[in-house]
Design a protein that fits this description.
Strand order of the largest sheet: 5-4-17-16-18-19-20
Strand content: 15-25%
Number of strands: 30
Structural class: alpha/beta
CATH architecture of the largest domain: 3-Layer(aba) Sandwich
Bound molecules: adenosine-5'-monophosphate-propyl ester
CATH superfamily of the largest domain: ANL, N-terminal domain
Mean pLDDT: 96
Distance between the termini: 58 Å
Largest sheet: 7 strands, mixed
Number of domains: 2
């Protein structure tokens, strides 16, 4: 049985797109009618972008876990919901059926309740890629607690900031996590994050690596012991909390152009409907298909297309704990072969990195089960697109280039696999319900084709950001104030002669390093924390594997002046402590001054050009306070 709202032809795509724009309320209420609700809505949508005030399915009540689990039990109870492949290929994999997922989520929901978690409480989840991470997420949703998953690569300081911002009282973590050859001491990072914290009441720790951990009496408990209590109490079910459509489902922190990450808030109903709809349509998921999304659940891609999208569709989602290059660069292809994966969804950075290993890792791997390939997170260059198409898809798998953001909840612009046309390096056409427009700096619409501009969206789709946690004004100024009555994405885009979109990258001060979003201001703040650093400026530059690398210009006047290499390492260590290893600059150039205007503004454009090695096009430097600074920087370029 297929899905009633799955688009199966180009003609149907055009029809559905027209219907979605002409009458969004009718379009989305038809789709929403296929979900399980406790109460139906009285209003499909109600919005204005000025506040912003955005509501979908107002009046309805539901629980997303009933849609992701309970409703599949009668027909798919014994089918795999989650297949887990461990980091080490010699360890046994796990298969969690829908029946078993139901049981585990209900049990853990009891654990949460027994530990004092209530509806609306913020629960921070800091775990490796194990099934218990998905179970923790779903158990929060079941009792109506707001989960805030933090990627395992963030530092104690980053966690502390997020705990504070969300006023979180509960943490779910592991003793440690495996990533390739590394064993990351998650609980110990949490312990550091909790120094001085006054809000967290309970830390629940799952045993994964059996790394020694300190368990603080009255605060820390073991996951396994807590489950044991629930089993002894004889609980098997946990009634799903009745949530209002617009109740928050989760917070996910992401970087913007300011120094402080924002807590993007998604709500229950709209997010559920849209992630399900896009999962089924973009990937053309068919019941029984094995969907392998290689992202981490700590990012939005993992939330939407490992957990909520696939499970709400009654699908089978493959969760992989490791990294693409360990024990060797054939890891993904072994997994595809072992589980007969049908859909592979990964990032251009992974493709470029694996491409570098040549054909050898592909030898002897049967990839014939693959039907659809996907990419996400950053622009894909044509060379990588063709390599993916020829070597992995063997020229017979459509590639979906899916453009979206943490704030959009689900995919907004993408071809639909095998249904709408693909074009290398182009996200192509918008999904039904999505109305992209290009504007110039003044917000004037740029009409017609073969044009480029700043990408905005005219009207809300169900999973658009609702607010930034604890600071609604920040949400307005970041996304809805740049251009009147438009959601501004922060991306630049081209619209080609066929009206297809090609996303060219961020137009704000946000970097995209290996598909991870990092604000330049955040990295600068971290560098400036290092004693001896006077000032710094960070820009991106093209990087063969990562897409963008981080280039830092630093004025340093501290200890060990003269031993540049040691100072560099000190600065890297500082950034790792403050943000995490993902934000470490690739290049640090020590400079005597930064190019500033007379009003003191750093001319990043010039620094960007130097980092990009476009020395011939530095532009007019005569308006600078001290033009000689530029010559010095060019001379010292790395
Ligand atoms: O610049 C765009 C880029 O990633 C940004 C969103 O990052 P994040 O919120 O971390 O979410 C990543 C996963 C959805 C966007 O503003 N981006 C994402 N997908 C694409 C992309 N750039 C080009 N092509 C894409 N397919």
């Amino acid at each position: 049985m297929s899905y009633p709202y799955q688009i199966r032809s180009l003609e149907q795509y055009h029809n559905d797109y027209q219907r979605s724009v002409a009458d969004p309320a009718r379009f989305w209420s038809e789709i929403a009618s296929y979900f399980t609700w406790k109460k139906y809505w009285h209003h499909v949508t109600d919005w204005n972008f000025s506040e912003p005030h955005i509501r979908w399915f107002e009046g309805a009540t539901l629980n997303i876990t009933e849609n992701c689990i309970d409703r599949h039990l009668a027909t798919k109870g014994n089918q795999p919901a989650i297949i887990w492949e461990p980091n080490d290929p010699n360890e046994r994999h796990r298969v969690i059926t829908y029946n078993s997922l139901y049981q585990k989520v209900c049990q853990f929901a009891h654990v949460l309740k027994n530990n004092g978690v209530q509806k609306g409480d913020r629960v921070c989840i800091y775990m490796g890629m194990i099934p218990e991470l998905a179970i923790a997420v779903l158990a929060c949703a079941r009792i109506g607690a707001i989960h805030s998953v933090i990627f395992g690569g963030f530092s104690a300081q980053s966690i502390a900031d997020r705990l504070y911002d969300a006023n979180a009282e509960f943490i779910i973590t592991c003793d440690g996590a495996y990533r390739g050859q590394k064993d990351i001491p998650l609980k110990s990072v949490i312990d550091d994050a909790l120094i001085g914290n006054r809000t967290v009441k309970r830390v629940i720790v799952y045993t994964r690596t059996r790394t020694p951990v300190s368990m603080i009496k009255g605060r820390d408990v073991w996951w396994e012991d807590e489950i044991q209590h629930v089993v002894e109490q004889g609980y098997t079910d946990f009634p799903a909390e009745e949530m209002k459509a617009e109740d928050p489902l989760f917070i996910l922190y992401t970087s913007g152009s300011t120094g402080k990450p924002k807590g993007v808030v998604h709500s229950c109903a709209g997010y559920m409907v849209y992630t399900n709809y896009t999962f089924i349509n973009v990937f053309q998921y068919q019941p029984g298909d094995i969907h392998f999304c290689t992202a981490d659940i700590g990012w939005i891609t993992g939330h939407s297309y490992i957990v909520y999208g696939p499970l709400s569709a009654g699908g089978t989602t493959l969760l992989f704990e490791g990294v693409p290059t360990w024990p060797d660069a054939g890891r993904f292809w072994d997994i595809v072969d072992k589980y007969k994966v049908n859909i592979l969804y990964t990032a251009p950075t992974a493709i470029r990195s694996l491409m570098g290993f040549g054909d050898a890792p592909l030898q002897g791997k049967d990839l014939s089960s693959l039907k659809v390939l996907g990419t996400v997170g950053e622009p894909i260059n044509e060379e990588a697109w063709h390599w993916y198409n020829e070597n992995i898809g063997k020229g017979k798998c459509p590639i979906v280039d899916t453009w979206w953001q943490t704030e959009t909840g689900g995919i907004l612009i993408s071809n639909l696999a095998g249904v709408t046309p693909a074009k290398p390096a182009h996200a192509t056409y918008p999904l039904p319900g999505v109305q992209p427009i290009l504007v110039d700096e003044n917000g004037n619409e740029i009409e017609g084709n073969s044009v480029s501009g700043n990408l905005c969206i005219k009207a809300p789709w169900p999973s658009i950001i609702r607010t930034t946690y604890g600071d609604h004004e920040r949400c307005r100024t970041n996304y809805f104030a740049t251009y009147d009555q438009l959601y501004f994405t922060g991306d630049g885009a081209q619209r080609d002669a066929d009206g297809m979109y090609r996303i060219t990258g961020r137009v704000d001060d946000v970097l995209n390093v290996s598909g991870h979003r990092i604000g330049t201001a955040e990295v600068e703040n971290a560098i400036n924390m290092h004693a001896g650093v006077v000032e710094s400026a960070v820009v991106g530059y093209p990087h063969d594997i990562k897409g963008q690398g981080i280039y830092a210009y630093v004025i340093y006047n501290g200890h060990h002046v003269g031993d540049e290499e040691l100072t560099r390492r000190d600065i890297l260590q500082t950034v790792t402590r403050i943000i995490g290893p993902i934000a470490k600059p690739d290049k640090i150039q020590f400079v005597s001054g930064l190019p500033k205007t007379r009003s003191g503004k750093i001319m990043r454009r010039i620094l960007r050009k130097i980092a990009e090695n476009e020395l011939g096009s530095l532009g007019d430097t005569s308006t600078l306070l001290d033009p000689a600074v530029v010559d010095d920087i060019v001379k010292g370029k790395l």
